[in-house]
Amino acid sequence: MTTAARLLRRRDRPRYSAKEMGIALALLAPSIAVFVAFFYRPFLNLLNWGTFESRANGAFFEDVGLRQYREQLTSDDFREGLWHSVQFVLYTVPAGLVLGVLLAVAAHRRLRGIKVFQAIFSSTLASSVAVTSVIFFYLLNPVVGIFQVDWLTNPDWAMFAVALSAIWQNMGLSFIIVLAGLQNVPDEVVEAATLDGYGPVRRLLRITLPLISPVLLFLLVVLVIFGLQAFAQPDILTNGGPAGATETLVFKINRLVRPDNIGIGAVYSVGLFFVTLVVTAAQFVILERRVHYAR
Amino acid sequence: MASVTFENVTKRFDDVVAVDALDLAIDDGEFMVLLGPSGCGKTTALRMIAGLEGITDGKLLIGDQVVNDIDPARRDVSMVFQSYALYPHMTVQRNIESPLLVRRYHADGPDQPARKLSRTERSERVDEAARVLGLDGLLKRKPAALSGGQRQRVALARAFVGRPKAFLMDEPLSNLDAKLRAQTRLELVDLHRRVETTVVYVTHDQVEAMTMAHRIAILSAGRLQQVGTPQEVYDVPANLFVAQFIGTPPMNTLTGAFTTQGGPAIAVGESRFPVPADLKTRLDEGRTVIVGARPEHLDVSEDGTIAHDVRAVEWLGHECLIFGSVESSPVVVRQVGMAPLAAGGTIRLAVDPANVHLFDPETTERLA
Predict the structure, then answer these.
(1) What is the ipTM, given to two decimal places?
(2) B250-359 falls under which CATH superfamily?
(3) What is the 3-state secondary structure (H, E, C) of A243-289?
């Protein structure tokens, strides 16, 4: 008997009648169909494409099995792309979390006209990456810009400049999510802490933040995924330059997905998928224990 | 331990006056209940003591110190909230310990400077609080794993572990079921006897007020109506509001006129209520008054002077309530045991003059 079969025979497993199973499958069918059509099948295709190596500039492909995976995932180019993506994450995620918390704490109070500020703080969510990029392209322009810096053309500063526009862009989302979390913290708990002698900073660190930790974990996961997927900002602001300093992994994938290189592009994509999967799973495993879910 | 004194304290929220020129002196060690219907300003008054609400006008003192502008954390009062407001991410132990961790205490006597408590001192105090409130086995649990009654006791332990000058309680029993509420009332009285701290307790439940308070302050629409012992506010209500708010079922009140024909009495249609001895000679003929009598003070009696049309009789086992009307005003009579009455009949009622209350119809104040 195989392990799987033994597992299936375990007594504590609920038993469903054929009719119940039928109904369950029927109810699941629409979403299964959507996932198969738009996720599982394309993903399998992608895995498969990664085993074909381009010959004669994509005129024909040869099945090389896992060799292409081995070679490409250990290549300097992949590693460089991954490092740029990680850099982007390191710039954007902590800043996003801190700014989200600071803005939300500032705007979470009963004041006349506070809605106006809440609307302003969340407005960056409503602007597209293209618009944001154009704004920063102007702000950072060395000649006509407001800050007049050469960051976008300086290899040491380009990634930071690109990340800056993403930080600004994410701010609205972070703000809204943290604010929603704060609004769920019962006033009485904060008041109890006040009477217990906690000052404003202690209240924030010891009471409020732990109480909104599920929201912060969610925000962390989302921001990391956004960061690993960064493409549009470097594409618009720097076109990957200068000297490839802002070529993130997705940027490289976008370059590679041409008829002559689609196999390598597929390998990179699969690589990014597993990196994202591992990082996200690690966040849940490591942090979930420290997150308090109110009951 | 300290007294708490309101001197002409007013609280306005924009145009709404929540507390209107409140004068109230709560003695050191007293159990004072602020009682009133919702929106009467009792919770606002309590929150002003805590410093969670600012004071628009007047002076608030804890001991002999004016605390109007003192930070809540420095007032040395603790509060038990209706929702208990426990810290859900901390264990019971940490919840109770929390004020000890951040505050400074005069642990070496009142003349020595205040300091933070050591780890041993903290754990001694937490253990003591846990023992008093029967939480010994629960210290490692989180609030989510506790029952409502246990959470309530953790909130009490947290409030009392720092031995504050005053305990403030905002409807602490309202989330408990009836049985647990009755039991906790007794425990609170017990706890108070033990710690002898000033307690200011807010409730809309007159049973809690009557059973626990040394004195009750009754508020309505932001104004203080009467302060007195439970017996005083019950026996000698200062005005119509207090008369009708205290007591279940509430006091019966009817509009009548003073007459001397056939002896001094209040005439309500054909029915006549006797007049308390001290008022017999002080009322003008024909003067309109509101006459009040509690359901338990009305007796069914052949030669009673009050005609009561019976609408329904509710038998509750140890007593029965006779619902009906006198001259078309609703009147309830409470009788010990079962009354052999049928709905639709008329009975005669008598009342001892000492148990008749008279109020001015204009000012609603008691006539005395």
Answers:
(1) 0.83
(2) Nucleic acid-binding proteins (2.40.50.140)
(3) CCCCCCHHHHHHHHCCCCCHHHHHHHHHHHHHHHHHHHHHHHHHHHC
